[in-house]
Amino acid sequence: MGNIFSNDKAGCDMALSNGATIVLLSTLILSGSDLAQTEWEQELVTWLAEHDQTIYGLGVVGFDLDEIAWNPADFEQEKAFLLALTDLALRRHRWEVLDYDPPFALCYLTDFRKLVECYTAEMVEGPKAWDWFQPPETLSKCPLHQVFVHANGCLLCHD
Ligand SMILES: [Zn+2]
Fold this sequence. Notes:
Blueprint: E1 2-7, E2 12-17, H1 18-35, H2 39-49, H3 53-56, H4 75-90, H5 105-117, H6 155-158
Antiparallel strand pairs: 1-2
Helix pairs in contact: 1-2, 1-4, 4-5
């Protein structure tokens, strides 16, 4: 069992084991939490953090890039932010926070970046709301890990 991360409209996807999924999401939110400035950027990182298998179960937290609440008017900026946080993660940003050495994280992040690169403006179907498992009451960070928390807590505390 594992999780599929996809860009169906471009016909590409990546399958990760449950353990690899935690590594991908943890490295993305460590960098994204430091980079996020706008409300949308903070929501994106919170939404990524919400794909928390400890709360929602193993093998049910994969997503398609189409599920992101892209705004057609701001799409290029929003995509640039997702690429920038992935690039920062690829530079091992704050990996010392993790209590393990993620040897294959660079491969997962490189594959994830390719999915994002292939997602283009024509694929965005109008403004839409975030599809939360459970909407967060506020956008706030874990005091221990300084990453955005979801409605049911911190992905890194749960790991
Ligand atoms: Zn935490």
